[in-house]
Specification:
Helices cover 57% and strands 5% of the residues. Helix 5 packs antiparallel against helix 6. The radius of gyration is 37 Å and the shape is flat. The termini are far apart. With 304 residues, the chain is mainly α.
């Protein structure tokens, strides 16, 4: 039985010239503020002077405002454009308000404006409302725009830095792979030369070679991550001394009675589930009972 897969291509038709993307493979539908679609040829023909009304809703449009369609539903496309324009003026953040209730009322007002403009409800009244808000909050609008531009510039710089770091990391990994490949090739040639020129048995030479390979592999696994991280940060690996942990009794009063060693030993006799592995690592039965008893005694003298 043969399974055949079919790729479904959604048909997109220009509402003015009725040209389909199935007929013209290079056709692209463009949209403007109103969200209605036009193909590129119709945009070039209708907006040759730079501006003209929409062929569907008669809304005045500019040729520079056309862009490639992002959503199937033109209502969603229009709402996204309207929301973007509204948020250029209504750009306050939560820190601009004294209470959370005031901030939520502000967000609800923004949603009402976007809804009205998207659904053609009280258009003139809503535009007047926006103009009044723009005049009354001119300084805060400009201030928040500057802050938003700085934030966008910071995020853009951060993304570029992350992309550059990723590219450097990939280049370094490629160099490491090439170096390892060259080392493997040199070791292979060295092995063949030893087998050809040495008086030792070939089996013995192979065993020594395999042992050397295992040693190099273990060192590579141990140091690879640390070395790559240090190189990417521009630091040079340095020798670090390793110190063993030394336990020190906590300093300070626990505001309670001290634990009695005799009593602890009696409690420790009940601990019988320790494995040989735990005991071989230095664990003692006393540790299993000392901490809960110290925790129980701690703070008892605070309530005399």
């Amino acid at each position: 039985m043969t399974n055949t897969s079919h790729v479904t291509i959604l048909e997109e038709v220009c509402p003015r010239c009725r040209t389909s993307n199935l007929q013209n493979k290079t056709q692209r539908l463009l949209v403007n503020e109103c969200g209605h679609e036009l193909c590129e040829k119709c945009v070039e023909h209708l907006y040759i002077r730079g501006s003209a009304p929409c062929s569907t809703c008669k809304m005045p449009l500019k040729k520079s405002g056309f862009r490639q369609k992002r959503f199937e539903d033109y209502t969603v496309e229009r709402e996204v454009d309207i929301r973007k324009r509204v948020l250029k003026d209504y750009n306050k953040v939560e820190s601009d308000f004294e209470t959370l209730r005031e901030y939520n009322d502000y967000l609800e007002e923004v949603e009402d404006i976007v809804f009205n403009l998207t659904n053609n409800i009280d258009i003139e009244e809503t535009k007047t409302r926006i103009d009044i808000y723009r005049k009354e909050n001119f300084k805060s609008i400009q201030k928040n725009r500057v802050a938003q531009n700085k934030q966008e510039a910071y995020l853009k710089e951060k993304r570029l830095a992350e992309a550059k770091e990723a590219e450097e990391r990939r280049a370094h990994e490629k160099e490491c792979e090439m170096a390892e490949e060259m080392e493997r090739e040199e070791r292979r040639k060295k092995l063949l030369d030893q087998i050809a020129n040495s008086d030792r048995p070939a089996d013995e030479i192979l065993l020594l070679h395999q042992e050397e390979q295992r040693t190099l592999a273990s060192k590579s696994l141990l140091n690879n991550g640390f070395a790559v991280n240090m190189i990417m940060k521009g630091a040079k690996p340095s020798s670090t001394k390793i110190y063993t942990y030394k336990y020190e009794d906590p300093v300070g009063d626990n505001f309670g009675p001290k634990s009695d060693e005799v009593r602890l030993e009696r409690f420790a006799e009940a601990v019988t589930c320790l494995s040989k592995v735990a005991l071989s690592s230095g664990f003692e039965k006393m540790y299993a009972v000392q901490r809960p008893i110290d925790d129980a005694y701690s703070g008892l003298f605070l309530f005399k």
